[in-house]
């Protein structure tokens, strides 16, 4: 599934030096999208960009930048930072992300001897916190249940999983669904408004339990969902 616009959007990934952000950077760059990896440490961002670039054709564009420059120089911004850096990061890039789609992939989780569990968020969810902090951006929640290991595995030609996409703006959720579809094996499925994002974010704790018990990289598969017109948010 290709985006309808003739030119592919540039993607800025805040936290692109991490496992999930780096995996998304690899897959989208391999699909031909210009990607900017953002980090508080510009040197780490440049190193990550070089490492990921080494596994894809040389004409693909991956660069590194600081967080604000990453958001400013991208058409679409992805927030893939740790939960404890979520608020601070969003406050830092508020102006740079104005008028843009912001894809929030963050799962507010805690870990202890009992495994992973979802954390309460004052705004309701990480995605709702992002929208509250970025009132002039269109926040979309997605990619919560995708294995970073599979995304980064350059021997895996496809990543077979469905991605639940949530948002309050119909055009934004549609564009994110299309971006999901650029990764072979993935489907972007509209799954509701941001007010329902807490359930999706929290489900990640259950998938972590599955993965630990069965030593796998499980994803989500939604049955009986055919290719239909994009749902209205």
| Main sheet makeup | 8 strands, mixed
Taking all Cα atoms into account, the compactness measure Rg is: 16 Å
Report the average pLDDT across residues: 93
Total DSSP helices: 8
User: Beta-sheet strand percentage?
Assistant: 15-25%
How is the largest sheet built, in terms of strand order?
A: 3-2-1-4-5-8-9-10
Structural class from helices and strands?
alpha/beta
Can you give a write-up of this model?
44% of the residues are buried. It contains eight helices and ten strands. Helices cover 34% and strands 20% of the residues. It starts with 10 loop residues before the first strand and ends in a 19-residue tail after the last helix. Helix 4 (86-92) packs parallel to helix 5 (126-133). It is globular. The chain has 233 residues and is an alpha/beta fold. The protein has an eight-stranded mixed β-sheet with strand order 3-2-1-4-5-8-9-10, sandwiched between helices.
Search tags:
single chain; 233 residues; alpha/beta; eight-stranded mixed beta sheet; two-stranded antiparallel ribbon; 10 strands; disordered N terminus; disordered C terminus
Show the helix and strand layout:
Layout: E1 11-14, H1 19-30, E2 35-39, H2 42-53, E3 62-66, H3 67-72, E4 76-79, H4 86-92, E5 101-104, E6 109-112, E7 115-118, H5 126-133, E8 138-141, H6 148-152, E9 161-167, H7 170-181, E10 186-190, H8 197-214
Helix pairs in contact: 4-5
